[in-house]
Structure formats: structure tokens, C-alpha cells
Amino acid sequence: MYDVVIIGAGPGGYNAAIRAGQLGLKAAIIEKRDTKKLGGTCLNVGCIPSKALLHASELYEAALKNFDQLGIRTGGVSLDLKTMLSQKDDAVDGLTKGVEFLMKKNKVETVLGAGEIVAPGKVRVTAADGSTTELETRNIVIATGSEVTPLPGVEIDEKRIISSTGALDIPEVPGHLVIVGGGVIGLELGSVWRRLGAKVTVVEFLDRILPTMDGEVAKQFQRILKKQGVDFRLSAKVTSVATKKSGVAVTIEPAAGGASEAIEATHVLVAIGRRPYTVGLGLEAVGVATDKRGFIVTDRFRTNVKGVWAIGDCVHGPMLAHKAEDDGVACIELMAGKAGHVNYDAVPSVVYTYPEVASVGKTEEQLKEAGVAYKVGKFPFSANSRAKTNHETDGFVKILADAGSDLLLGCHIVGVGAGELIAEAVSVIEFGGSSEDIARTCHAHPTRSEAVRQAAMGVEGWTMQA
After folding, report:
1. Of the residues 254, 355, 367, 405, which has the fewest C-beta atoms closer than 10 A?
2. Looking at the structure, do residues 307 and 207 belong to the same domain, yes or no?
3. Do 284 and 225 belong to one domain?
């Protein structure tokens, strides 16, 4: 008898397993991935391999276009795509082995196969060879994550019409990559292939990219990407995608209706979002409630069935690996009688392009809609000494604080290293701090972090370096 069986070994599941082991619970984790590698979508075909390609492609473009102005003569730069893809796979392999080690270290049993809840306290695991094993447990945690949302009428073949998974392994640089969807995944993967030489066109149904982020930030970021060579077709919808001998024909028309237009491409990336993955879990059989969008309904990670819990992408909240990690830890702590908690107002979001975009807390649009009186402080990287020295001046920092109490409500950054810089604002929000707390905290000089401080100073109108 286990104390907890966790279905899914992604960031939510494996961190839940680690915490269970630390707290002395007898735990097992189930993973169905064909590669038999732990880490879920994030580690195998998501966050990690995409970052490996983002990093490599950034270095390639820098060597190709920027080294000369720094006084670096390379004698010619060429792309070895096969090696670039291989080093990406090496990174994934090393990290999946690391997760496997952590399971052993924390005395978590790993069971390979597809998990199905057959009754409260009972999970059947079907292995790749068809054999089955039944695990009895006091608690079950569903951590099965999410999958690519399909585009109606478009069949993904992972050759010419690809998902985010296929976009990690295109064997040649696309001549023209059309991306359906202007969200995080499409922009990240599009930026990889643009740097490597592809023409990139983004088709977005809305009138803006990054719809969940601050509007001013998204607008500035789009201008930066356009300057880099990305073409945008906003307020447009894809009505058909047809594979041809020479590539793919994409038909688009205005979102509001109107004349259609054909775009010739070599590849199409469908990146319109993700949806909960709960196929074959047996939720209906045991009565676990889901909503109309397929998310499992929970109250502090508890489902409506006693002893069955759910975390990560398959429940409501941002579909982010680090959110799933925090869910997993809090869920196990509650299970163990501790005070597990996640502050969803302090969950950061990052777009790992060049430059990066990072956000935490409320956007201006959300504050206006809620009728909250707020103040704004902004500071451009063009006035930051480190950014100027490094020729990386695109972007700015934006701080939002309550007009009365000065409570920090949000921070939004476009700029190199934004994903690291946002951590300061996350900490201040988590501790209920103010913009003045940042403004009066000493920051090392010269660093990009000074831009965060200067933006915080700007909330009260005493920015000093711009």
C-alpha cells in the first residue's frame, strides 16, 4: 500500500514525488512516455529542448551579425544543424537521467506505463507490452499535464504541418515558416528558425500578440520582432492548410470576415495553445468532475472524489512548468497535514526570445478592468549603462503599484535577461512589498537590474538616470 501514487512524471509530478519522499511518504510515480524518460513534456519536448535551440541560435546569429562590431573576427560562420539538434538532445538526455536519479534518491518507485484510476485508491498501469499492474494507495495525484490544441480541419503530420514537438526537429531550415498563433510557444520557436535563416510569418486571430501579457509590453515586443524580420498578420484566421509537392498552402482571411488570401510556405507550425490531457485516466468511471474545457475541477488540489488530487496543466491556472512544480509541492504538503499554498499572483511568465519578455502580477488592463487606482513607473534599457555597453538596449521595465498603499501589483519587462530580472519583483510581491522597497534597495552597478530599481523610483516620480 502506497501513501501516494502520482500519474505523470512532468515537473508537477516529479516534484510532488520528491516532496513526498522528503516527508517520509511511500510514493510511486507513473510515466507512459514511449521514450521511458521522466520529465514530461517540459523536459522532453518543451521547455528544455526549446531553450537549447534558442541559446544555440542566438549564438549563431550573434557570431554571424554582431561579432564584427565588437572587434571579433571569426573568419566565417556556418550552420551545422545536425550538431545543433544533437546537442539539444544531449541536454534532454542528461536532465532526464537527473530526474531518474532524484526518484531513487528520494525512494520513489518509478512505474512505466499508462496509469488509469479504476477505483478510489486503485490505479492500473498498462505497460508498453500490454501487461498490467495494479497499485493500491491512500492518495492519487493526477499530474498528466497538457497537449497541443489542434486546429480544426488541419491534420498535423510533424513533417510539413507541425506542432511544437515537430518544430524541435525540422531536419532543414524552413524556407518559409508560417506560425498559427501569436503566443509564447509560436514566438519562441519562430525566433529559433528565423535566426537560422527562415522567413517567418505569424498569423494571429486577435489584434495583438501575447494576449495574456501587458498590452504596452506586447506592442513594444512586436515592434522589436518586426525589426528582426518577423512578419505579422494580426486579426486574421487560418481557414485551410493544404500540403503540396513544394510545401504548404495556407489560406487566411480577416477575423471579422472578408476576402481570403493564400500564403505559400514550406512549413506550418500550429501553436494556438494547449489543453488538459486526461485521456484514458478513468475519470468518468470514478466520477472525477471536469469542466466544459476539460480541466479537472479542484479545491486546493482536491477533486470531488476523496483521495484523488490534481495539479499542473490539467487544472486551472497558468500552464507553466514552475506553476506545476509549486502545485505539486503544496499538494503533497496538504496531504501530509502541512500548510501547502501557492500564490498565483506571484507566478512569473517568461517568453524566452531575444530579447526576453517577463511578467508577474497584474497588467494595466486588468487593473483598469478591476477599477484599481494605480501608479506606473517605467525605465528604458537605452538609459541603462550595462545594456548600452553591451549593445542590448531594446525594451524597458514597467512597474505597477497601488496608488494608495504603494503595494507592488505587477512588473513587466522587455529586455535581455528579463527572465532573470523578474525574480526580484516576484519576491517583493510574494512578501507583500512595495515599489519603494525596490527603489530603496541597493543594486549593483553596472547591471541590468538597475533598470528595475529605476522603474520603481519612477512610481513616485524620482527616476534618477533618465
Report:
1. 405
2. no
3. no
